[in-house]
């Protein structure tokens, strides 16, 4: 949309500055082309929708002077489900947490998750653990430097009755 606006401004500027170089019919043709292009872009923009059925939030909980619990919450849109970190072979993509390496902290163990629900998944035709509505994941860390920023990435898959979507999100914790 920004490119289209910029093109429109350039054409308008050129046509105003060099008004005597264009015949009236040429100006109408340019305006018609810009108008048509603008309408086509509007139609394209309204038909393309980014579907993000999982939204992530984070918070921290102080356990001791150096130990913290990183809490990651997935808010899952109604009708969708998010898969566990542990899924069977040949199944969906698992939820994966990738913490940035840093000298400011160390991970203690692995990321834990809620119990969830294990049901027969018709898409993959197997028993798979997943979460509906909301899921909470926790990671313990040992802090080595105060006032640290912890960065992580989440890769995941969520599905509804008609489609599965691969997702990716960056998350951050400030301690």
From TrEMBL:
PROSITE patterns: PROKAR_LIPOPROTEIN. Residues 64-169 form the Thiol:disulfide interchange protein DsbD N-terminal domain. It holds the Pfam family DsbD_N. Gene3D superfamilies: Thiol:disulfide interchange protein DsbD, N-terminal domain (2.60.40.1250). It comes from the Bacteria. This is Cytochrome C biogenesis protein. It comes from Gelidibacter salicanalis.
């Amino acid at each position: 949309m920004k490119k289209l606006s910029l093109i429109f401004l350039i054409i308008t500027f050129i046509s105003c500055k060099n008004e005597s170089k264009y015949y009236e019919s040429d100006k109408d043709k340019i305006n018609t082309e810009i108008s048509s292009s603008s309408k086509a872009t509007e139609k394209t923009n309204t038909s393309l929708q980014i579907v993000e059925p999982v939204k992530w939030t984070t918070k921290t909980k102080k356990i001791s002077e150096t130990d913290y619990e990183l809490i990651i919450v997935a808010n899952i849109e109604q009708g969708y489900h998010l898969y566990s970190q542990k899924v069977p072979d040949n199944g969906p993509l698992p939820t994966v947490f990738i913490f940035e390496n840093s000298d400011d902290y160390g991970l203690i163990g692995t990321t834990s998750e809620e119990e969830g629900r294990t049901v027969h998944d018709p898409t993959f035709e197997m028993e798979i653990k997943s979460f509906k509505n909301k899921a909470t994941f926790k990671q313990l860390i040992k802090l080595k430097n105060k006032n640290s920023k912890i960065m992580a990435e989440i890769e995941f898959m969520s599905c509804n009755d008609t489609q599965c979507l691969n997702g990716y999100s960056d998350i951050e914790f400030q301690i």
